[in-house]
Design a protein that fits this description.
Pfam families: CoA_transf_3 (PF02515). The protein has 16 helices and 14 strands. With 418 residues, the protein is of the alpha/beta class. The strands form four sheets. It has a six-stranded parallel β-sheet with strand order 6-3-2-7-8-9, sandwiched between helices. A three-stranded mixed β-sheet has the order 1-13-14, with no helix packed on it.
């Protein structure tokens, strides 16, 4: 377990000096903000006074304080809000809107995921803020984008997984018991949208170095999900084949799925004919590799209905770990199907320090999942645990805007900030 603390290496963070104003909530936008923060940016999370990000209430489970009592913050919130400072401000007030405009004039990047036009009523839309700060990179994340017939609709991950085709290729085959469309077990479309938004922000920062100008970034969950159909989209666009649900099987590779073992299940991920031949040796059936029905991947795909039962009859006689040891020695890609607790107990996961622990003002410490990006010269830094709601309000307004204690007190008296 890696206990992360601030270090002198902060000076070498990739995005040090970049200021990000994060008006987003839930997952896609905050995921982007967290990634920018991990890379060294100063990320200010703007939250509603008294409520905060929606995901603070999406429990159980709840973070527990040092005495073991549940707090008001759900575990969900901690997945996407590391390396941020929280500013609780009421943007429905004229004073709150004025503060956001001032902050936007100091910012390099603004993230928001309001409905299309939702911030225009406050004068906080891209057009308005880019006039005030032409160098601002204004990233809008929505369900369906800034134009088109669905632009004003609300978009949620589950909805987009269905509309964007992912659920049509996820789940048991139609001919199997329990068949039907199935969502992915993680809000994957939100996560991918956060990643695409971050790529857009980095590209816009690079472009600004050349032009001196910021720009408006339009990222939509539906667009991202369609783009992320990857080979399944290509199968349809080029091959004219409408992909169908295949359970854990692969449409283009065989064998590439789960198989039963003597004590559970394992994954075989055979990507070429040489790997298949080595598997056949380990399985005690070298004749499969020379059989014209199975000798090439093209033939195996065409004859999967014949081959897969044969493989299942072989794999069921050995326990999972025995298969993994034997197949790894033969250079055949394979692995177990781990529960989440088993993931964090895996020796490779431990070796890569994918669990980090950060100090937290209420819980003492909080465990989080590490950023997977390994940069040799400007490493990811874990500077702050996900913040308490409004934890840094005074600090941020004094830091970014230079507000005095008296000015902060007046804003609190007027219920603009908390």
């Amino acid at each position: 377990m890696n206990t992360a603390t601030p270090s002198a290496q902060e000076q070498s963070s990739s995005l040090q000096g970049i200021k990000v104003l994060d008006l987003s909530r839930v997952l896609a936008g905050p995921w982007s903000g967290q990634l920018l923060g991990d890379l060294g940016a100063d990320v200010i999370k703007v939250e509603r006074p008294g409520a905060g990000d929606d995901t603070r209430s999406w429990g159980p489970p709840w973070l527990r304080d040092e005495a073991g009592n549940p707090t008001e913050d759900a575990a969900y919130f901690f997945s996407a809000n590391r390396n941020k400072r929280s500013l609780a401000i009421d943007i429905s007030t004229a004073q709150g809107q004025s503060l956001i405009r001032e902050l936007a004039c100091k910012a390099d990047v603004l993230l928001e995921n309001f409905k299309v036009g939702g911030l225009k009523q406050y004068g906080l839309d891209a057009e308005s803020l880019l006039k005030l700060n032409p160098r601002l990179i204004y990233a809008s994340i929505t369900g369906f984008g800034q134009d088109g017939p669905y632009a004003t609709r609300a978009g949620y991950d589950f909805l987009i997984q269905g509309m964007g085709g992912l659920m049509s290729v996820t789940g048991r085959h139609e001919r199997e018991e329990g068949a039907g469309p199935q969502k992915v077990g993680v809000a994957l479309t939100d996560v991918m949208t956060g990643l695409y938004a971050t790529v857009g922000v980095l590209a816009a920062l690079a472009a600004r170095e050349k032009t001196g100008r910021g720009q408006h970034i339009d990222v939509a969950l539906l667009d991202v999900q369609v783009a992320a159909l990857a080979n399944q989209a290509a199968n349809y666009l080029i091959g004219g084949i409408v992909p169908e649900r295949m359970g854990n099987a692969h449409p283009n590779i065989v064998p590439y799925q789960d198989f039963p073992t003597a004590d559970g299940d394992m994954i075989l991920a055979i990507g070429n004919d040489a790997q298949f031949a080595r598997f056949c040796e380990v399985a005690g059936h070298p004749e499969w590799a020379s059989d014209a029905r199975f000798s090439t991947n093209r033939a195996r795909v065409e004859n999967r209905a014949t081959l897969l039962p044969l493989i299942r009859q072989a794999t069921v006689f050995r326990p999972t770990q025995e298969w993994i040891v034997a197949l790894e020695q033969a250079g055949v890609p394979c692995g177990p199907i781990n529960r989440i607790d088993q993931v964090f107990d895996d020796p490779q996961v431990k070796a890569r320090q994918l669990r980090v622990t950060l100090p937290h003002p209420v819980a003492g410490t909080v465990p989080l999942v590490a950023n997977p990006i390994r940069l040799s010269e400007s490493p990811v830094q874990y500077r702050r645990a996900p913040p308490l709601r409004g934890q840094h309000t005074d600090e941020v307004l004094a830091d970014w805007l230079g507000l005095s204690d008296n000015e902060l007190r007046r804003l609190k008296d007027d219920a603009v900030i908390r």
